[in-house]
Design a protein that fits this description.
Blueprint: E1 13-20, H1 26-37, E2 46-52, E3 58-65, H2 68-75, H3 78-82, H4 84-90, E4 93-99
Antiparallel strand pairs: 1-3, 1-4, 2-3
Helix pairs in contact: 1-4
């Protein structure tokens, strides 16, 4: 058996997205997210994880991009821009933080 090692793209930009869902229409939010997250691959972006709090009031995403320019291109994507009215209708708000990976082992 031959094992092929495929090098993984080293992500240099990590974004922590904290989403306040306390006043959001969650069904609209989830529909928006399905459409927006589908665009990440066009910019070599990846959703590592999406976690919702047990009380349903907050959701957190960790996104990766190869560089800041790729993240900016994702933000400027024409399809994503057309979705901004849908985003506003969700009632959710976000905070975006630049983060870095920390390895303890």
């Amino acid at each position: 058996m031959v094992h092929v090692v495929i090098p993984q793209l080293e992500y240099m930009v990590h974004k922590l997205i904290t989403i306040d869902l306390s006043t959001a229409n969650v069904a609209l939010f989830e529909e928006y997210e399905r459409q927006a997250i589908a665009l990440l691959g066009h910019y070599a972006g990846e959703l590592e994880v999406a976690l919702r709090s047990s009380d349903g009031l907050t959701e957190t995403h960790v996104l990766h991009f190869p560089d800041e320019a790729s993240f900016e291109k994702f933000l400027a994507d024409p399809v994503r821009k057309r979705l901004q009215q849908a985003w506003a209708a969700t009632g959710a708000t976000t905070n975006v933080s630049d983060v870095r990976r920390v390895r303890y082992t």
